[in-house]
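Below is a typical protein record.
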Amino acid sequence: MQASHLNKIIFYLIFCFGFWQPAYCQIDTKEIQKADLLFKSNRLLEAEKIYLQNLNKSTQESENIKYKLAFIAKEKNDWISELTFLSSIQAQNAKPEIAKRLAEIGEKHQVQGFQINYLNQFQWLYFGFFPYIIGFLLLLAAYSFLILLNKKRNKRRIRPAYITYLSLFLISLFILTNYPTFLNFGIIKKDKVFLREFSSSAAPVKIMLKKGNIITHWNEQEVWANCYFDGQFGYIKTDDFQGIN
């Protein structure tokens, strides 16, 4: 890899890093205000209907809406919906208080995947100090880039390995920044769900999943999705789980 390609590589990676974000529709502010008034008046079912209609229209309000939907689900004794909304918040902005509530629900209903562990602590640090971590790593990347740029201006030899290392560092930074969007979680919403060896109802069953279990899923194709749970990889039907992020 020649040094003359350095600027193109850096520009491409920074472009992807800065602009790879999904687009969202505008939220109906008046409708949300109406739902908030209904929520405060304890007219929860009416508020719930409006919140659900506007849930996916804006990331700015979605977390507050999910909190309220989780509260409504708790009042309705709908623990699966409460798990789903709280887990969705946790996947995007992990917090200790949510993790504790999820652990309580998981313990009460005997479902796996909600115990507090080292991964939870890593997520709390990641979301709690995200601006500082990313800012520090960006400074390191900028410093490295300036060193290489200075060498190029002075017509000094730049080893291809240096450019490779910087590229790998920026790619890792990009992955770290978008870490939550790379993981797809889901909550099993039926009483008995079978994790199968391949995408067919006739395939051998590896394990049976309980209602409320949290799974990692990807590569959804028609009615089947790849799934990982408790050390096992397999396939489950897409209508057997509710995506949480």
About this structure: The radius of gyration is 23 Å. The chain is about 55% helix and 15% strand. Residues 1-183 form one domain. The first strand starts at residue 185 and ends at 188.
